[in-house]
């Protein structure tokens, strides 16, 4: 019978990773940083080029005027919801990136909050869009795949930020 080790690894002891230094913004955190910056840039572009122009031009009137053939009362809910939601995500994501580069302990709960907020807002937006007959059938595949992508993002990154040795040893301030 093989002899058992004199001491079993425990959750309080760091795992033996050889000579690897598992501190700093390396490893999988590089991919996390790229993803977060990509999300920030995408959100800013979507808000500034996709949503805000609706309020400035004639589009808002066409969508919210009962005399218009494109009218639906839900537009006056969905468009501000998208604008406010994206604004909140931009602020939250900017704060997450600031915490990341300052290596603050608060990063983990805030990045989880960010991923959960993205999932909640995208789910709510998807559901609300189904109430507008003009958009209910259009782009459902794209919207649904985006929603599934957000779910997968949560399923991957939230456990990573909770369990990673690198995250635990990097964000300590």
TrEMBL record:
One Pfam assignment: DUF2569
Bilayer-crossing regions: 27-55, 75-99, 111-132, 144-162
Coiled-coil segments on the chain, per record: none
Name the record gives this protein: DUF2569 domain-containing protein
Keywords of this entry: Membrane, Transmembrane, Transmembrane helix
């Amino acid at each position: 019978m093989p002899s058992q080790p004199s001491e079993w690894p425990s959750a309080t002891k760091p795992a033996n990773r050889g000579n690897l230094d598992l501190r700093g913004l390396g490893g999988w955190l590089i991919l996390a940083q790229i993803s977060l910056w990509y999300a920030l840039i995408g959100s800013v572009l979507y808000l500034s080029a996709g949503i805000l122009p609706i309020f400035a031009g004639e589009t808002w009137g066409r969508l919210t005027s009962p005399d218009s053939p494109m009218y639906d009362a839900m537009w006056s809910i969905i468009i501000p919801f998208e604008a406010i939601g994206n604004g909140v995500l931009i602020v939250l994501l900017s704060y997450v990136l600031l915490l990341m580069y300052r290596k603050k302990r608060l990063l983990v709960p805030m990045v989880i909050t960010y991923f959960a907020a993205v999932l909640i807002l995208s789910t709510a937006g998807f559901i609300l869009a189904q109430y507008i007959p003009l958009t209910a059938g259009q782009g459902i595949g794209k919207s649904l795949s985006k929603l599934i992508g957000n779910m997968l993002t949560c399923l991957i990154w939230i456990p990573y930020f909770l369990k990673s040795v690198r995250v635990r040893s990097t964000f300590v301030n």
